[in-house]
Fold this sequence. Notes:
Layout: E1 10-15, H1 19-30, E2 35-41, H2 44-54, E3 58-62, H3 70-80, E4 85-90, H4 95-103, E5 108-111, H5 115-127, E6 132-133, H6 135-151, H7 161-171, H8 176-183, H9 187-201, H10 206-215
Parallel strand pairs: 1-2, 1-3, 3-4, 4-5, 5-6
Helix pairs in contact: 2-3, 7-9, 7-10, 8-9
Amino acid sequence: MTERTGGRPIRILLADDHALVRRGVRLILDNEPDLCVVAEAGDGAEAVEVARRVRPDLVVLDVAMPRLTGLQAARELARTLPHTRILILTMHDNEQYFFEALKASAAGYVLKSLADRDLIDACRAAMRGEPFLYPGAVTALIRSYLDQARQGTAPETVLTPREEEILKLVAEGHTSREIADTLFISTKTIERHRANILAKLGLKDRLELTRYAIRTGLIEP
């Protein structure tokens, strides 16, 4: 159960062109009390159509599907259903797919080979507005940043001034509502900034954000 869903189970749309895969993934998800698969789709286009009708909290998309790929479907869902979270579930440990998934506004990238270990955590992280990246994806992000730094194209600072402002308030223990009231912006904007901060820094929770804020001098220990 999550605050975003009002305490009810997270409603999930599962899209994969292999019925056997869908059945196995559904068993993993439906076995959790806070997760509920409410619809399935056999390709990307059907996933978009069903999502518009069912309005799930979260859509889990395979990458390689007929009609629309998972990445194409993710882009369309991000455009038409911006409040719906998206996860990519794939057999491909592929940096290009991974970066395309991030560009398509996916909240996470989960390998099918690790689904029984990672998928449940990824669903919950997505609904908290936090990114979920498997270790190889984190390595790819770091390598990309270092390549940009060597080429002189990396940003001078990792976080924007607004993100640093929000990070400081998060690390001081303020809730999203309190931060929104302080900065006169919406809680949804705060949550989006918080997810971006976690992704940029490769961190996973408030405790790690606090440690980072202490190390960088944003707050005192």
